[in-house]
Backbone:
């Protein structure tokens, strides 16, 4: 309504100043009559194409709507409204597509009191139908990437499939949307709730913040997050194409995706791919202890030569034996794996290696004393013995890592060659035949007190 | 809906003007009021800090003798002490007095005129509750070597003063005429530069007092350019604000790829924007040795000072299909000297060692560094 008055005064036969003189002479009786004038907006078409780019690393979705609008020659007002409070109004922007060259965006306004509406003023050289793109950020659509990994061929191969679960926690439904997932860690200085807070603070006059917040703000957004109830299992096939940006990757989940409000839709992002795997064991002794089993495989190009990363996600592991029976092997976490990179997938349960590490002997040597006879330093000599036994019916590779508390040590004797990983860690690599037992013995000298001077 | 925005801006503007017209012609104020015609032109200059200065040009009809001009805006949130009247210099009239009442958005100016005349006076005042928020949109080109740089300014006006048409100035010669009802937020597109070249540099930061013997992390993605002519910028100082980066996907869609806060940049200043991390360039940093030597003790045998020799090794793998520029920034505290490095290095400041690398597609590298820290205390 404010805009209508504004339009009437600026477009009327009288200049603004004259308009005011008239108002002052006729008094306030004229004001309601002015208010009765209506604002004309150019009509936006329904989206010809709707795309959602969902960010894996943040609660953020970039919505892209391709629309058209009929414009008259001269200035036009185009109004855009959205349904959900989790849209960041400051992110709502309009881009003129190719063919809109004779049209200029003069300004974008946010009418007072309207929290889900924005108006653009466009100036067109001539009347016509103009294609345009509207972008905005939205919170409440999250993606969860997960894998199904089936060990086959007696555990020498793994068949991988990747699934994306899209959770729409907003009040808005999306039909026939093209959905892509951006894989990678983008920097966001504030999350969308903070953006909304900032926008409300910016747009509010400064004394009615609380009322506005109750009406449209974060509270309702949080409620929307909390009431997700329905879960739709829609294991529909999808394109699974992966496209590269400069530093990130886009997983294409296909077009025509329907995202109902407060529901989950699932799409495959990685078609079934079979790769060779190796088993590797890592035994930690010293200040870190434990035995872990890993599956090693390389993220090689697919059958069509396509290279793509494996995004971070949980992996449900199963084993299919030679009889075709399927048994679960727990869930692991797959870290982001670049194209060509070798994955080390830590398994939840270690099978096939029995290990035991004991301190066989410990003695103190080389005591040093000060002038008063107080002890200032000494050496601790430890004999550590680690027994490794391969209980599988195939050869295995074991990495034995010994961890030290500090840098004041010397490995005086080792029964096998070793590699110094860093100043607090050494590693031994052993290959054990089926049933083979090997004992690795280390003689470690650690320096204490003034003996560290000579370490 | 707030109280101010329910009040129609034109009505408020009218009241504001009526205050001028009615009160100036009011019999209650005697016969000595000047006739003030309606607003001729208004300008509103808003600084990046949100300081908003209005200047109104109003025709003023002066009569011989003493004239009074009263300016009032009952619903307008203006800075009372900022109200000022200025008139063209002339010997025919003179501003002799300026009166205000505490707590009242009104001021009365007393003008002595020797003859009947018509002039254009300017009234200026500062508005409160006008806010400004600067943002930048950076649109990468498909060749990934240039971008378009667009400044966008968000404005809100909760001053209570609405404008049918006001020239909005945002600094450095940018003036644009726009209607601006009170309560409205507005986004203006103020500054655009196309084809800005830039350098994309990956930055890996490590070291410092809390450095551990090993670390693995993904390097930061930075975009580097400068507010200079060499980058087709440098016309104006750039106000600080959020910078959002967009990149076209292979299918032509625009994708948001990160944001950073840019502090105000003067002409000639360089800009480094960090927008995220790359996962396809891996750096594995290991501290291979750490040895004490040149140990100094007091007479009681207590350790006083020592020197330390430290070895570092970085194993870098570029899984990307293009050449990548990586800068490793190692923070080393205290007195230190570089003893050995199998790679080019520089020391931009006392606490920083920088190792610049250029890795081809799928290339890997192993960089070793040895330095000595002196006079360390236990």
Residues:
């Amino acid at each position: 309504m404010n805009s209508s008055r504004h339009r009437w005064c600026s477009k009327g036969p009288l200049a603004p100043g004259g308009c005011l003189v008239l108002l002052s002479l006729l008094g306030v009786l004229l004001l309601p009559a002015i208010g009765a004038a209506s604002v004309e907006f150019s009509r936006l078409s329904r989206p010809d194409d709707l795309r959602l780019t969902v960010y894996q690393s943040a609660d953020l979705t970039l919505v892209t709507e391709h629309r058209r609008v009929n414009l008259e020659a001269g200035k036009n007002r185009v109004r855009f409204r959205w349904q959900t409070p989790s849209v960041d109004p400051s992110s709502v922007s309009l881009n003129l597509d190719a063919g809109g060259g004779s049209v200029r965006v003069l300004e974008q306004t946010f009418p007072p009191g309207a929290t889900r509406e924005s108006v653009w003023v466009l100036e067109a050289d001539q009347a016509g139908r103009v294609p345009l793109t509207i972008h905005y950020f939205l919170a409440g659509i999250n993606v969860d990437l997960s894998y199904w990994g089936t060990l086959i061929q007696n555990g020498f191969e793994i068949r991988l499939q990747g699934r994306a679960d899209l959770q729409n926690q907003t009040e808005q439904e999306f039909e026939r949307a093209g959905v892509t997932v951006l894989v990678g860690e983008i920097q966001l200085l504030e999350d969308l709730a903070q953006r909304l807070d900032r926008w409300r603070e910016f747009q509010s006059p400064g004394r009615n913040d609380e009322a506005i917040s109750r009406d449209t703000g974060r509270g309702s957004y949080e409620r929307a997050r909390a009431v997700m109830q329905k879960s739709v299992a829609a294991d529909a096939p999808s394109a699974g194409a992966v496209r590269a940006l400069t530093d990130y990757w886009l997983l294409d989940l296909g077009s025509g995706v329907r995202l109902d409000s407060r529901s989950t839709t699932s799409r495959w992002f990685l078609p079934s791919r079979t790769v060779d795997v190796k088993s590797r064991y890592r035994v930690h002794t010293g200040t870190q202890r434990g035995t872990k089993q890993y599956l090693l495989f390389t993220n090689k190009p697919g059958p069509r030569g396509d290279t793509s990363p494996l995004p971070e996600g949980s992996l449900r592991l199963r084993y299919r034996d030679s009889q075709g029976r399927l048994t679960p092997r727990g869930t692991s976490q797959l870290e982001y794996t670049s194209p060509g990179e070798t994955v080390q997938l830590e398994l939840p349960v270690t099978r096939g290696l029995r290990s035991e590490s004991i301190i066989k002997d410990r003695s103190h040597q080389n005591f040093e004393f000060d002038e008063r006879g107080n002890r200032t330093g000494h050496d601790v000599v430890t004999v550590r013995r680690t027994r490794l036994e391969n209980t599988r019916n195939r050869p295995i590779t074991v990495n034995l890592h010994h961890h030290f508390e500090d840098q004041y040590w010397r490995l005086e004797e080792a029964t096998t060659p070793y590699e110094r990983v860093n100043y607090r860690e050494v590693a031994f690599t052993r290959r054990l035949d089926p049933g083979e037992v090997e004992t690795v013995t280390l003689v470690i000298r650690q320096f204490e007190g003034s003996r560290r001077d000579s370490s | 809906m707030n109280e101010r925005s329910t009040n129609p801006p034109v009505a408020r503007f009218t009241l504001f003007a009526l205050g001028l017209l009615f009160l100036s012609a009011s019999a209650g104020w005697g016969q000595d009021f000047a006739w003030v015609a309606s607003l001729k032109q208004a300008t509103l200059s808003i600084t990046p800090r949100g300081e908003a200065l209005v200047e109104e040009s109003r025709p003023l009809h002066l009569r011989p003798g003493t004239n009074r001009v009263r300016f009032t805006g009952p619903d307008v949130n203006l800075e009372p002490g900022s109200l000022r009247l200025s008139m063209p210099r002339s010997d025919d009239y003179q501003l002799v007095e300026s009166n205000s009442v505490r707590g009242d958005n009104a001021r009365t100016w007393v003008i002595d005129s020797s003859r009947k005349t018509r002039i254009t006076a300017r009234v200026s005042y500062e508005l409160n509750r006008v806010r400004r928020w600067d943002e930048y949109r950076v649109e990468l080109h498909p060749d990934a070597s240039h971008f378009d740089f667009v400044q966008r300014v968000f404005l809100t006006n909760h001053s209570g003063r609405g404008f049918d048409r006001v020239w909005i100035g945002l600094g450095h010669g940018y003036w644009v005429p726009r209607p601006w009802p009170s309560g409205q937020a507005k986004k203006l597109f103020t500054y655009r530069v196309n084809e800005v070249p830039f350098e994309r540099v990956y930055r890996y930061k490590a070291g410092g007092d809390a450095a551990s013997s090993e670390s693995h992390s993904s390097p930061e993605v930075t975009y580097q350019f400068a507010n200079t002519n060499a980058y087709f910028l440098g016309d104006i100082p750039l106000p600080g604000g959020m910078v959002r980066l967009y990149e076209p996907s292979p299918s032509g869609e625009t994708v948001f790829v990160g944001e950073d806060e840019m502090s105000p940049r003067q002409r000639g200043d360089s800009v480094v924007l960090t927008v995220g991390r790359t996962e396809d360039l891996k750096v594995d940093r290991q501290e291979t040795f750490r040895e004490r030597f040149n140990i100094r003790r007091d007479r009681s045998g207590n350790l006083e000072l020592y020197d330390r020799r430290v070895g570092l090794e970085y194993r870098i793998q570029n899984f990307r299909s293009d050449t990548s520029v990586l800068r490793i920034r190692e923070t080393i505290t205290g007195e230190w000297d570089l003893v050995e490095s199998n790679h080019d290095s520089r020391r931009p400041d006392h606490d920083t060692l920088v190792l610049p690398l250029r890795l081809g597609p799928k290339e890997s590298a192993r960089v070793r560094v040895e330095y000595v820290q002196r006079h360390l205390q236990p």
About this structure: The longest strand of chain B covers residues 281-297. Chain B touches chain A through 86 residues (CB under 8 Å). Chain B has two helices and 26 strands.
